[in-house]
Amino acid sequence: MPLLTTRRQFLATTASAAGLVALHPFSARAQANQAHLRLMETTDLHVHVWPYDYYSDRAVDTAGLARTASIVDAIRAEATNAVLLDNGDFLQGNPMGDYIAYEKGLPQGDVHPVIAAMNALGFDASTLGNHEFNYGLEFLSKALGGADFPVVSANVVTREGATPTADATLVPPYVILDREVTDGAGVAHPIRIGVIGFVPPQIMTWDRRHLEGNVSVRDIVAAAEAYVPRIREEGADLVLALAHSGIGPAERTDGMENAAIPLARVPGIDAILTGHHHRVFPGEDYADMPGVDAQTGTIEGVPAVMAGYWGSHLGLVDLLLERDGNAWRVVSSTSEARPIYERGEDRAVVPLVEDDPEVLEATREAHEETLDYIRRPVGETAAPLHSYFALVADDPSVQIVSLAQLWYIEQMMQGTEWEGTPILSAAAPFKAGGRGGPEYYTDVPAGPVAIKNVADLYLYPNTVRAVTATGADVREWLERSAGIFNRIEPGATDATLLNPDFPSYNFDVIDGVEYRIDLSQPSRYDSEGVLQDPDARRIADLTWQGRPVTDDMQFIVATNNYRAGGGGSFPGVDGSTIVFEGPDTNRDVIVRWLVEQGTVQPRADANWSFAPLGGTTTVLFETGPAGAAYADDLQGLEIEPAGEGAEGFARFRLTL
């Protein structure tokens, strides 16, 4: 079957013949015994077909397969021969995916919208990512049933044999695409392209409830070592690895999640299409890594690419092939990840492409149904979710995030060495005024909660992490957070409470423990997290389940990837204490928790408070004027209006 078969491919070829686009040098210079083959990659689409942020309910220019698709034709036209491949994580990751899985379902004959979009684009093959398993195996099977292209994965096993090649796999471990390539003289030749796929073995932890007892997972490199020789024996000229695995440690360990570098050492692999990390390769994301050339785009000398996420880039690996007898071999390569947008001088997003109408039309009905879905309630809250007073009192908008994280990490710790270890949860108020202005606050009234409200609760697409922490670590974590407050002298009148240089997203509240903050003491850490007063201690009366927290106590703390990786310079939290890296965003976890809970009771439990100061001590702080409607709900706190603040804020007085 020739490479150029679809209407889109015909149009691309016509455009090239008409001189509308410039040929890649490999196509322009190929000799009679040479051919240029372009590999195009999407990865980590996460159901982002339309350029739309369903959480904020607005169009965007930074995502969407419909945007990526609009450059596919031109990119195909730059090459004499091309194949389009997807690297997994296409089935879950935004409200459209949740709508199809949780509400609409996939009745017989229906095609999942992301599959419909991929069919419209003419994908040649795909592999499974870890998120394909989030909705269970039955749903996955139904979704894949609508694909007009093969989906492969070599290391997800339904029945283990004596060797990986004797295993029964969930989907075919590999496929050999029989195609034709046109050489530099215009002569067509047959070529057999082997495509093999891999998924992180950690799916057995991340989706244990769906997978345990149904499948097992082989090590990525071990599976490659077993299957790649077989693909060659079956006559493949090339072997392409669709590795839904990041570019991680160079040293091979069994069951590693990010195995692209050891995978590149497996003999017989001609190119690696990577993903999972939501990063771009080649590029600075992977500079100075052993075995990785972040400029030319090779891993251990093997051509490779990683195309960002959500359709932000189209990954390109260009191979110059030379015919050796009746076989083809790679003699040269280039790699790039081509973006769909760029940042202007003012950091504003500048779109580089338009929507592809064919992809939009193939998914329009699902998009419109998803809009209805995100605007409908997915749960109920018995109390308002607002952040107007999140910096001065335990807060319902922060607590709902903490509760969802606790719920998630409790499940993830089951069956691990950490099962039974006390779990805490750290969360911070993201929308709390500051430079965002007097309207920059979470404000969801009591009653129905829609999916789009989740963006109000959690601004960033962070992913969930869990770290280990001793009692001493927890205390230091809280001391760092307490740096948001100025030192207050007992008896002071209307002192300024908050340090304006301290961002609210670094004010972590830790649920699961109880504590008080003594503002009469100096801050132990400055606003950058640097230890400035080793003798200072603001955190007092720190307890867990009524017992004083001792330095040697052991905890698991649920948090996000930014904090767990060292973001905010929190002492003891530097990436080395991570025990769980979740594949799910904090937003998705909140949505799932809301769906499961139905009605939530996110009333702040006042697990933290200010220690009383002697005499009558008052402080002033500013918040959004709309916060006045909730001031009387702050039980146990003496708060009163204190006039207008600067730039539209309202000022309040707190008596300590």
From TrEMBL:
Residues 1-30 form the signal peptide. The keyword RNA-binding does not apply. Residues 442-572 form the 5'-Nucleotidase C-terminal domain. It comes from the Bacteria. It is found in: Cell envelope. PROSITE patterns: 5_NUCLEOTIDASE_2, TAT. Residues 38-279 form the Calcineurin-like phosphoesterase domain. Its cofactor is a divalent metal cation. It catalyses: a ribonucleoside 3'-phosphate + H2O = a ribonucleoside + phosphate; a nucleoside 2',3'-cyclic phosphate + H2O = a nucleoside 3'-phosphate + H(+). Pfam families: 5_nucleotid_C (PF02872), Metallophos (PF00149). One of its GO terms (molecular function) is nucleotide binding. This is 2',3'-cyclic-nucleotide 2'-phosphodiesterase/3'-nucleotidase. The lineage of its organism: Bacteria, Pseudomonadati, Pseudomonadota, Alphaproteobacteria, Rhodobacterales. PANTHER family: 2',3'-CYCLIC-NUCLEOTIDE 2'-PHOSPHODIESTERASE_3'-NUCLEOTIDASE, 5'-NUCLEOTIDASE-RELATED. It comes from Hasllibacter halocynthiae. One of its GO terms (biological process) is nucleotide catabolic process. Keywords: Hydrolase, Metal-binding, Multifunctional enzyme, Nucleotide-binding, Signal. Belongs to the 5'-nucleotidase family. The keyword Nuclease does not apply.
